[in-house]
């Protein structure tokens, strides 16, 4: 599956803000090590300290490039590759002050995104042989959504809507506010632009029947038992085989296989993002450091 990295016009604004948050009024430690008339270069590498799926290396590279275009960040593994503990996943070289100043922001992003990709892969592997697609949700960290959803792609999931403007999803509170599924669909259909689709969340077979009657494009089966879900899938397929069916609600590694086998098209879960932990990565600076400006020895 091809994973799409956000374009630089979007990515750079995020990264600059996160760098500013970390740097503040200046990197006191790094600035104290080097005089302003020195350009000291060094080399280093990134190391995996626990096994998992690697994600975010191109984004980490961009962090360093924003600090100094002379920094070279070369991934030594493929984005989305499963790596064992001890694997060197990237090499980098360039002005040492930029390597040190960008280290934490770059590593934080790499660890967070790799953790999400690793958990996503575990879920995706459970249903890899079935004709069903794992999708993520909008349960993301504010400010990090576009990157966290990128990481789920790397891990093997498909993105659900990125935001409220991507598609119509009529959930339980919308239904309550509108006075019922039928009224909600009818009201929304009058105002949405072409070609937005309408998805409706259902919790009972009666609600599925109403969603079919009002011609929803996608029907979500939310928090249903496997037995009820099987009945709902059969009902929908017999009515209109073009309607897409999504299962959601309390999907775990133990339950996703049974849910997927009901015949739904998609299984959505927030777990790859909300239940993942960071994958432990580390950056190591090597000792082959040269003072370009004065030919000095630099740091040892």
UniProtKB/TrEMBL annotation:
Catalytic activity: nicotinate beta-D-ribonucleotide + CO2 + diphosphate = quinolinate + 5-phospho-alpha-D-ribose 1-diphosphate + 2 H(+)
Listed GO MF terms: nicotinate-nucleotide diphosphorylase (carboxylating) activity
Quinolinate phosphoribosyl transferase C-terminal domain segment(s): 116-284
CDD domains, per database record: QPRTase
Keywords: Glycosyltransferase, Pyridine nucleotide biosynthesis, Transferase
GO CC annotation, single: cytoplasm
Keyword Glycosyltransferase belongs to the record: yes
EC numbers, comma separated: 2.4.2.19
GO biological process per UniProt: NAD+ biosynthetic process; quinolinate catabolic process
Transmembrane segments: none
Residue ranges of every copy of the Quinolinate phosphoribosyl transferase N-terminal domain listed in the record: 45-114
Coiled-coil region(s): none
Pathway connected to this protein: Cofactor biosynthesis; NAD(+) biosynthesis; nicotinate D-ribonucleotide from quinolinate: step 1/1
Subunit architecture: Hexamer formed by 3 homodimers.
Family note: Belongs to the NadC/ModD family.
Purpose of the protein: Involved in the catabolism of quinolinic acid (QA).
Protein name per UniProt: Probable nicotinate-nucleotide pyrophosphorylase [carboxylating]
Organism, as annotated: Okeania hirsuta
């Amino acid at each position: 599956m091809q994973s799409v990295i956000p374009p630089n016009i979007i990515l750079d604004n995020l990264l600059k803000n996160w760098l500013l948050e970390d740097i503040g009024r200046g990197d006191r430690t790094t600035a104290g090590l080097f005089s302003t008339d020195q350009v000291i270069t060094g080399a280093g590498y990134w190391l995996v300290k626990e096994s998992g799926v690697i994600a975010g290396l191109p984004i980490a590279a961009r962090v360093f490039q924003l600090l100094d275009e002379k920094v070279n960040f070369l991934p030594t593994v493929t984005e989305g590759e499963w790596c064992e503990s001890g694997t060197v996943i990237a090499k980098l070289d360039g002005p040492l002050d930029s390597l040190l100043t960008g280290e934490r922001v770059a590593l934080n992003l790499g660890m967070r995104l790799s953790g999400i990709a690793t958990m996503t892969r575990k879920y995706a592997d459970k249903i890899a042989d079935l004709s069903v697609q794992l999708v993520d949700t909008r349960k993301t960290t504010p400010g990090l959504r576009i990157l966290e959803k990128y990481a789920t792609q790397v891990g093997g999931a498909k993105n659900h809507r990125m935001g409220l403007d991507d598609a119509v999803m009529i959930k339980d509170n919308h239904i309550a506010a509108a006075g019922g599924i039928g009224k909600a669909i009818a009201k929304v259909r009058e105002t949405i632009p072409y070609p937005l689709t309408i998805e409706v969340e259902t919790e009972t077979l009666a609600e599925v029947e109403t969603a079919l009657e009002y011609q929803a494009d996608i029907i979500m089966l939310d928090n249903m038992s496997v037995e009820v879900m099987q009945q709902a899938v059969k009902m929908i397929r017999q009515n209109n085989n073009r309607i897409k069916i999504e299962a959601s609600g309390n999907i775990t590694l133990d339950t996703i296989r049974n849910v997927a086998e009901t015949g739904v098209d998609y299984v959505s879960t927030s777990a790859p993002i909300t239940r993942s932990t960071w994958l432990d990565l580390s950056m190591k600076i090597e000792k082959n450091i040269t003072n370009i400006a004065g030919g000095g020895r630099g740091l040892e």
